[in-house]
Each structure stands twice: as C-alpha cells, then as structure tokens.
Please model this.
Amino acid sequence: MLSSNVKQSSKFCKCYCCLNPIISFPSSLDYQNSGNVNSSTFHYDFATATTSSLYPHTQFTNSESLPSLPESFRSFTRSFPQYLTTVEADQIRANDYRHLYLSSHVCLDYSGHALFTFSQQQQQQQSGEFIASSSSNSHHKTQRVSSIEISHKANESLSLEFEDKLRRRIMRYLNVSEDDYSMFFTANQTSAFGLLAESYPFQTNKNLITVYDHENEAVETMVKCSKNKGARALAAEFKWPKLKIYREKLEEMVLGSFRKKKQNKGLFVFPVQSRVSGARYSYQWMNLAREYGWHVLLDASALHPKEMDTLGLSLFQPDFIVCTFYKVFGEDPSGFSCLLVKKSISPILNHSYISTSPGNMSVTKNDQGEFNECDVECKGLDQADALGLVLIGNRVRCVINWLTNALLALYHPHSERGTQLVQVYGPRVKFERGSSLAFNVFDWKGDRVDPMLVQKLADRSNISLGCGLLKHVWFSERYEVEREKIMVKEPKEGRKKCKGKKKERSESGISVVTANIGYLSNFEDVYMVWNFVSKFLDADFVEKERWRYTALNQKSIEV
Model:
C-alpha cells in the first residue's frame, strides 16, 4: 500500500510520467491567453505541429532532396509561431556569443548552466592588459571580475568575499534558500558525487539507488565508494525503446521487500531527466523515496536554465542537490559544480572529510591584482533570469522536437522495407521531452555506423556532437533480436581466456551519438546537424570522407 500522500498525488499521476505530479509548467505562449485549454488537447496539437513542420509523410532519401535552410525555417515557424517570440535569445547570442557566428560552429556536445559570456572573457583579457600597463599607478582601481578560477582551500589568495557573493548569486538563481541549504564548490560533478559519497554514512544506511539510463563517471564514483563501505548499490532499469523507467522494479527497490516504512534506508539519486536520451521522470519518485525512509539526492545538472523554479521545493525539498556550471558557452566549457546540503540533514555527514577533501574547492579572484571592491557578474545566469522559464522552455521544446522529427524522416533510397537512416533512443516527438537526443546512424545494410566516427566526421563539418553509452536497458522478448544487434559487448571481469575458447563477454550498453540543445541553440544549428546526418544516405559517404581525410593529410605532410 502506498502512503496517503502518495495516493493523494496519484490522483494526478498514476504512472510517475508527468513533469510535476500536480501540474505541468506553462507551455506555449500562444496558449497563455486562450482560456481553459485542455492539457491533452494542447499536447496533441503540439505533436501535430511538429509533424507538419517538415512536409508530413515525406521521406528524404538523399541530402540533395532536403529543403533549403530558409525554406525549412519558414515551414518551422509556420508550425511553431511561438519560436519567433524567443528572438531575445537570438539577440543575446549575437551580442555576447559572437564567436559562434564568426566560426559558424554548432556546439551541441555538452549541457550545463553558463555563468559567463564570451564578451566577458574578452573584457577580462582587455582588463588584464590594462592592469599590466598601469601597474605603476599608485592609486587603486575598482575592477569588475568577469571570470573565475577554481583553487584548493589551501590557496592563500582565497577571497572569502568573492566566494560568498558567488555562492549567494548561484543559490538565488537555483531558487534555493540560504536558510535551508549549505553550498560547497567542487571541481566538477564527479567531485561533488565523490564528496557526498565519502561523507555519507553508508555504513549504517546501507543502500544506494541510482536512476540513470547512461554511463556516468560521477555515479560510478559514488557506487564504488558506497560498496567499499559495505552498502548495496542498485540501479533502475529502463524499458526499450523509449527508455521509460521500469516502474514496477523501481517501486520494489524503493519500497523494499516488506513494503514497510523504515528510516535510514540509504541514498536515492535522482536526475529528473537524462542528459543523454532526454527522457524525463516524474518528481513523484522523490516523494515516494522520502516517504519510505530514503535520503534524496537531486542531480540538477541536466536541467534547463530556470527549471529549478518548477521543482516546487516546498513540496520536494531534496536532502542534497548537485548542479553544474560552465564558464563560456561554446568557447570554454570548463567550470565547476556545486553540492547543496539541507541543513537539517547536515549532522549525519562526516564533516571532517568535507573540510579536508581535495575535491572541495573554493572560488578565488583572478591573480591580476588587488581591488578595493569585488563585484560578481554572472552574465549567463542574468540572461537566463531575464529570459525566464516559459521562453526558454518554448524555444528548447520546439528545436529539439523538430530535430528529432527531421532525423526520423531520413530513409535509405531503394529500400523495400523503408529502412530509416537514424534510430532515436528514448522519447521521440513529445511535449515534455528533455533537451538531449540519443541516436545512431545505420547504413543501407542495417549495420550501425560507429558513433565515434560520426562524431569525428561531424567535427570536420564544424559540428560538435557528443558520444554516450546507454546502460541498464531492459528488453522484452519482442526486442531480443534488436538487443543482440546493438548492445556493446565487453569481457567479463575476472574471466580468463581458456585455450580454444572465446573469452566470455557481458552486455555493457548501447553506444550512441548525443546532441544537447541549449537555450542559445537556434534553428540553424539543428538544421546543420540534419543536413550533415543526411549525407550518410550516400552509401559511399564514409569511404569518400576517409579518402579525403587521407588526401588532406598527405598534402599537409608534403608541404
């Protein structure tokens, strides 16, 4: 039996499928003033609009058959007029991220919240030159700090004032109260997970549940640490092919064998959405875990900017939050992460480890001189705040669904079975899908093109795509043939190769190409990806590219 709170919430969501168990956040601007619009009707209209944005029932069988960029954009905006209301994001991109236009580079290979802009980076370089040329001046100057570096606690140049101001700015951006949470800076997501794993009492709270449909270094670090402390590590499974959570299995893990509430069960790690497949999960899982004695870690690293505003933290205040920030979108993706700890939970942690951990970092001013004032300007966060949740959500929703639909419209020529060029893993066209897309390219014989090769060829076309590994995928009997065809095999650990016998291999995962859409991504970006992928419809495309690559290298050597 579920608890009364869970049963009450289940009136709104019986299958943990919606973004919020009570109500989804606002959607299209076109519908804001249209009175009481039925939610399911709007979702249907959205799906219809996505289909109609690219010549319904049309199959594109060669790259030359694709409509031009202007023609595609006109069709796109006719189907999604609300995209035109997001022009402010284009203005920000043009003004503060001009390097994306100058280089014509498509950056879809990472996700996170950008702190600073390219224009700020340029200002920082210019200000550094100014300081060097005026260092002989006796009077002090006020300087605006526009970029940061991460250093160890031991660094004597630590600026507590700067660290405090940055902490407050980020917590305000995340819609988190300083009265409720403490925040620690870490070098990256892996450091944040490791820091919590080392300080969490897995010796007494002997269980760990993770909900990730992909390989994640941070998660693996936490799993390893928990096992070293004697904990049992469990992982949610995801049903093929849409990668929805295998609800019954995860419920069994959370509720336990006897389905009784019990305190100190362990740690439940929940990402809300997959940064690889774009699958989204209901917040109700956090509530269920809390009801049955689990501490909850919310991994907000893959969320859109401003989506923390939708979490309703008054209802779902997680015990821990991890989020990731980057410096400059498309230019310098390095950055840091933050671990937020609920103050009421803090006593259970080993604080001696937190204070001495090499993964616990502090933010310092750039060593360009001493200033009377220390101003913190996180322009990327300011821009997201100014654009707001609805605008960002509308823009990303339209772009990612168009790309999904466009890739699925590519078919190999002269195929009797209508063989698709691209297979998408996870949600397809869907109103509440995430901003990430996982897919693979298949040749005319049905063999998968190596995702690493696709990534390399994309890079040569000035397109940055990522690669990932889907894991914990559950196949029903219906998809057994497909499982054997696409699963990556790895040797089993500890197995020695016997004479005359092949080494035993275990299923590791599904290697995929990934694309992550940000609020500064535009229609031209996804069109360029579509145009690039369509070149694989030419059966000789890969061989031609290999020949051209070799020829170019030979020429460069001769010169």
